[in-house]
Specification:
Layout lengths: L3 H8 L2 H15 L1 H7 L9 E7 L2 E6 L2 H9 L1 H11 L7 E6 L6 H16 L17 H8 L4 H19 L1
């Protein structure tokens, strides 16, 4: 009898398998990277969501964690580039979201289940909409740039990122 690994190795070439292992290691490395940068507790409130066209998408459960992670964003990028040069990571995008992996969401679900058992009426879920956080330091640094073309490009980039985070 063949194992699942045997079947998969026949279906996919060795290069594909190595690339998949690289992605797996990338997603598993988040706790190590945050700990290395002095904010190990951030791993419980955030996770790597995706790697899309060289941009690492990191999702967190609260705007406060987003601000904390923004302070280390360039260090994270450098660490990921060193650890995973084959993935050609060119940037990190921080975004708010909700995920079942966060402890707070699990606790809320447990409370909701208990109250649903004791109440006959089902409550509507609470939807939280957050405005994008603008880093004041970055905004003031843009004003210091003397090259108008670069300044305009950076402003447009910031607007594009803010629009994508709203979606």
């Amino acid at each position: 009898m063949k194992t699942a690994g045997d079947i998969l190795s026949v279906l996919f070439d060795e290069g594909f398998a190595k690339k998949a292992q690289g992605y797996s290691k990338l997603f598993d490395s988040w706790a190590d990277i945050t700990a290395k940068n002095g904010i190990a507790s951030a791993a419980a409130h955030s996770r790597i969501k995706d790697l899309d066209r060289g941009i690492l998408l990191v999702e967190m459960d609260h705007p406060g964690w987003k601000q904390i992670l923004q302070t280390k964003q360039s260090k994270f990028l450098n660490d990921f580039r060193i650890r995973f040069p084959e993935l050609d990571i060119s940037g990190i995008s921080l975004m708010l979201g909700r995920s079942d992996t966060y402890d707070d969401v699990k606790a809320e679900a447990a409370v909701s289940e208990d109250s649903a058992k004791t109440e006959t009426q089902v409550k509507e879920p609470v939807v939280v909409i957050s405005k994008p956080i603008v880093n004041e330091t970055v905004s003031s640094n843009i004003e210091d740039i003397k090259d108008n073309e670069l300044k305009e490009t950076l402003i447009r980039l910031g607007q594009t990122i803010a629009e994508r985070e709203r979606k």
